[in-house]
């Protein structure tokens, strides 16, 4: 499945309240394109919705590490989800 299709389906699942399915699809998307910050941000949000702050922080840390490799940092919008 193409990255754009994964994101659209993941968003639809989240809107339907199917959080676990949405998380799995967003994880597939970041597996295909690790620099896709919007997918990481969605994962952070979904983990927080589930009450799993530790998973949200792990996702943020993973994103931070990925972005550091290209000499950048998470956007203020992403950072604001946790801090």
Outline the structure in words.
It is a single chain. With 83 residues, the chain is mostly helical. It contains five helices and no strands. It has helices at residues 3-15, 19-32, 37-49, 53-68, 76-79. Helix 1 (3-15) packs antiparallel against helix 2 (19-32) and helix 2 (19-32) packs antiparallel against helix 3 (37-49). The longest helix has 16 residues, at 53-68.
List the helices and strands and how they pair.
Layout: H1 3-15, H2 19-32, H3 37-49, H4 53-68, H5 76-79
Helix pairs in contact: 1-2, 2-3, 3-4
Summary keywords:
5 helices, 83 residues
**Number of distinct beta strands:** 0
Q: Assess the beta-strand content as a share of residues.
A: under 5%
Going by helix content, strand content and strand pairing, the class is mainly alpha
How far is the N terminus from the C terminus? 34 Å
Helix content: over 70%
Brief synopsis:
With 83 residues, this protein is mainly α. The protein is built from five helices and no strands. Helix 1 runs antiparallel to helix 2, helix 2 packs antiparallel against helix 3 and helix 3 runs antiparallel to helix 4.
């Amino acid at each position: 499945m193409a990255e754009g299709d994964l994101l659209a389906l993941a968003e639809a699942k989240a809107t339907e309240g199917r959080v676990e399915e949405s998380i799995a699809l967003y994880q597939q998307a970041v597996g295909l394109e690790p620099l896709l910050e919007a997918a990481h941000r969605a994962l952070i949000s979904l983990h927080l919705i589930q009450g799993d702050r530790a998973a949200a922080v792990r996702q943020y840390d993973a994103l931070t590490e990925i972005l550091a490799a290209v000499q950048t940092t998470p956007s203020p919008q992403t950072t604001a989800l946790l801090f």
